[in-house]
Write a structure and sequence with these properties.
Elements lengths: L1 H28 L5 H13 L3 H14 L2 H13 L9 H13 L3 H13 L7 H12 L4 H13 L7 H12 L4 H13 L7 H12 L4 H13 L7 H14 L19
Length: 265
């Protein structure tokens, strides 16, 4: 009987301790000194797929005014899926706006996405450029790529391939695959730069090595045609195969015929 009583007391103590720790964590998220701890705990909860705890901790911190938490919470509502819950663009916009106005580069970049994609707001390329620019100037690589894209397409700004490539280069130098692919396209077509198939191949290859499907296809095509690299049909087929696993391409149905006269791209 004594052993049973001790066991019950131990369980009760552990339960109380766990409850107290949770309350302490939540309390700390609403205090200046607890922000780093709060973000670390939120990240741990996310990695453990405990999304309710993740969201709750971020909400406490975001309401306290932490710009990083506001950005993460906004992105959470912007990108949630069937595992995390339904998207909520209005909540995303609310938190990203607060974060962006405090100068957080991730909040600014994600807010640019909202306006560029018409997510919960009327599409406004000028506003998208405004927020991408602010984040890009803080060296946020995704914003740099998106700003380059806006210049390349003339969306929200006057079309300017030179400006586009400058931003692509800043992003690509941080290893962002989409920007590497963008530079590959520019060098392949001579947009804002002198046409250079060797440099085009090099940038496409960098992105391909990160699993970027369109770059895998571009590298395969350049190996097949011997543009910017020595012709190598074996390599070409390897890259076409990798591209097909990621994204349906018009070449996929004919891979078995690769290298034969009747092979058509």
């Amino acid at each position: 009987m004594k052993k049973l009583t001790l066991t019950i007391l131990l369980i009760a103590t552990l339960s109380t301790t766990a409850c107290s720790e949770q309350k302490i964590n939540e309390w700390a998220c609403g205090k200046e000194f607890g922000q780093t701890r709060c973000l670390n705990l939120a990240e741990k909860a996310y990695n453990n797929k405990d999304y309710e705890t993740f969201k709750k901790l971020l909400e406490i911190s975001a309401n306290y005014g932490n710009a990083q938490s506001q950005a993460q919470l906004g992105i959470f509502y912007q990108q949630t899926d069937e595992k995390l819950g339904e998207k909520d663009y209005q909540k995303a916009l609310y938190w990203l706006q607060k974060s962006a106005e405090q100068g957080n580069k991730y909040g600014q970049s994600a807010l640019g996405d909202m306006y560029a994609g018409a997510w919960g707001v009327k599409q406004d390329d000028t506003q998208a450029v405004k927020w991408y620019q602010k984040a890009a100037e803080q060296n946020e690589k995704e914003a740099q790529y998106h700003l380059g894209y806006m210049y390349a397409k003339g969306k929200g700004v006057q079309q300017d391939y030179i400006q586009a490539n400058e931003w692509f280069k800043k992003s690509a130098n941080q290893g962002f695959a989409f920007a590497e692919h963008g530079l590959g396209i520019s060098y392949n077509n001579g947009w804002g730069v002198e046409k250079d198939y060797t440099l085009a191949f090099q940038w496409f290859e960098k992105a391909a090595n990160q699993g970027h499907a369109s770059s895998l296809y571009a590298v395969a095509e350049m190996y097949e045609q011997g543009q910017g690299v020595e012709k190598n049909l074996t390599k070409a087929k390897e890259y076409y195969t990798q591209a097909c696993k990621l994204e349906k391409q018009k070449v996929c149905e004919n891979l078995d015929n690769f290298g034969k006269e009747d092979f058509k791209i």
